[in-house]
Amino acid sequence: MKLRYTYILFTALTACYVMPAGAQVKNTTKKGQKTATPASQNNAKKLGDAASKTVQDTTKKAGQNNKPNEGGAISEEIVVTTSYKPVLADAVKIRRNPDLEDKTPFKAPLTYSSVDKRLTKDNEIQQLEAMKRPPERDSIPTNNYVKGGLGSMKTTFGEGYFSNGADEALQVGGYIKHFSQGSSSFNKQNESRNELGVFGKSITDEHTMRGTIGYKRRGVNFYGYNRDLETPTQFDPQKQAFNTLSAEGELAKNYRDVENDFTYALKLNGYVFNNSFNAKENNLVLSGFINQTVKQFYAGLAASLDLGTQKDSLYSYSNSIIRLNPYIKFQGENYKIDAGVNITKEFGLSSRFSIFPAAKLEFQVIPKYVRLFAEAKGDINKASIRDFAETNPFINENITLKNSADRLALSAGLKGTLAPGLGFKATFFRNSVKDMPLFVAGFSTIGANNKFNVIYDDGTATVSGFTGELDFKATDDLNIFGRAEFKDYKMNTEEQAWNMPKFKLTAGTIIRISDKVNINGSLLIRGNAYDRIFDPTSSVANDFQRVEIKSFVDLNGGAEYKVNKQFTVFVQVNNILNNTNPTWLYYNNYAFNIFGGVGYAF
């Protein structure tokens, strides 16, 4: 009800407002009289604004008789002089065009099907699937490779490797190597090395058979002499050459992952050795083992028969050793124990029966990262003309031969992985050696004899020290490795451990710059050592004078560039620091030298 009254009142007020406005526009007269049209209306017609003229005709009944004079008819006319131009505020305008593209996403019909499968629990570790072998870098592998080069100091170099190809069941091949070098710093400071050999390997379902035949020749000259004395008149160094013909054959049962497996292996190797004088040595070794697995236990026996003969112009010896090594092994998840003894019997040069320990322990301190190990062992070290010549090629004729013994060699340390790609091994050791062999200079005062003899420290000497190894393989393209040795010698009868340095560091690196460029480097740091010579100023027989052999650093490097799949170019630089200190007394190292060449794969 109140709303209706409000609407009536609002209509009355509006009428009062509009009626005076209409009176200003047009005069209304009685019926039958003419009305005057304002001038503004005429102007609007002339301007073509007739469409803008608005006429409002309101008729209202004022009674039943509808008399005009009594308000029965009211007529008004309103004229708008200008056209209506609507204006919108900026905030209301829409400046974005509609997107007419149809972007309705497609929804594929979904279908569901039930899987008839039993739910299983994966509590236990499942067997790993075998990983596929990654593809080789080269699509066409090569079986043969040869390389050769020339360089300063009359350097000649050559190598060749040959095989039948990628046959997993049968491998047959051979190799040949040559290296020679000479310097003018000393009269006939020359050395040459030559090797050749053939090998074969066959793998069947049950056994693996392997065999090799090789030949080595090394030639040197006795160019060293005491430079503190007058140079010998017409000094002409003697030549020396060592020849070794060797062969080896092995038969082993293949490993199978079965319970209580029985394994065995048999090996036969030997060599024939001689030099440019009268020294000869023959050796034949038959060795093998049998092993029976019983759950976590491994019980077995290793044995060897070492037969040898040694001859020179003043002696002919038979030097043989029989070894028996019964053992038992027990391996758990975090540890490994080896327990046994090494029983030896010497006959020929020496007749001695010995029993040595043969025990080893490993325990995981930090699983998968660090392992603690300890070892106690002993053995007979057979005196060999060939082994002495490989260590020191300037040895004398008719050297003294005596078997030494590692009576008790103890070692303990840690090994494992510090970080991904960073492996290490740290070992503390102490070894008791009976009749330890030593090289000493046998030079005479006139320089006619410039060779080394072999003497022995009678009794038991003690060697203790530390060995550290580090191998860092950051990526497949970078590998850095090194080994450091610290030794302390306590001799029984000799004044010094002659020609035995107390410190030695060897290190190297291999860097693969790209698929075509490789760089390698090596470093050798050797501490000082001592040798003894006859004192020319003393009148006492066998009066010796100690001589220091100074430490030295040997730095080498090389690079290889792969032109294509077949050809490579290489360069090698030795003794970059040009350090010519001697390795053996009066036998100096070669100075700075460089050589290079080409390799070919086919």
> What's the end-to-end separation, in Å?
114 Å
| Number of distinct helices | 3
Q: Compute the CA-based radius of gyration.
A: 52 Å
Helix content: under 10%
Task: Report the uncertain regions.
Answer: 16-73
Portion in strands: over 45%
Main beta sheet: strand number and arrangement? 22 strands, antiparallel, barrel
CATH superfamily of the domain at 402-602: TonB-dependent receptor, beta-barrel domain
Shape: elongated
CATH class of the domain at 402-602: Mainly Beta
DSSP E strands, number = 28
Find the structural class using helix and strand composition.
Answer: mainly beta
Tell me, rounded to a whole number, the average pLDDT.
84
What's the CATH architecture name of the domain at 402-602? Beta Barrel
Question: Remind me, CATH topology of the domain at 402-602?
Answer: Maltoporin, Chain A
What would you note in describing this structure?
It is a single chain. By secondary structure, the chain is mainly beta. Among the domains are: 80 residues, no CATH class; 201 residues, Beta Barrel (Maltoporin, Chain A). The protein has a 22-stranded antiparallel β-barrel. A hairpin with a 5-residue loop joins β5 and β6. The chain is elongated, with a radius of gyration of 52 Å. 11% of the residues are buried.
Describe the protein's topology:
Blueprint: H1 2-25, H2 39-46, E1 53-54, E2 78-79, E3 145-151, E4 155-163, E5 170-183, E6 189-203, E7 207-221, E8 239-253, E9 262-275, E10 280-294, E11 297-311, E12 316-331, E13 335-348, E14 352-366, E15 370-381, H3 385-391, E16 404-419, E17 422-441, E18 452-475, E19 478-490, E20 503-512, E21 517-526, E22 529-534, E23 544-549, E24 552-562, E25 567-574, E26 582-584, E27 587-588, E28 593-601
Antiparallel strand pairs: 1-2, 3-4, 3-28, 4-5, 5-6, 6-7, 7-8, 8-9, 9-10, 10-11, 11-12, 12-13, 13-14, 14-15, 15-16, 16-17, 17-18, 18-19, 19-20, 20-21, 21-24, 22-23, 24-25, 25-28, 26-27
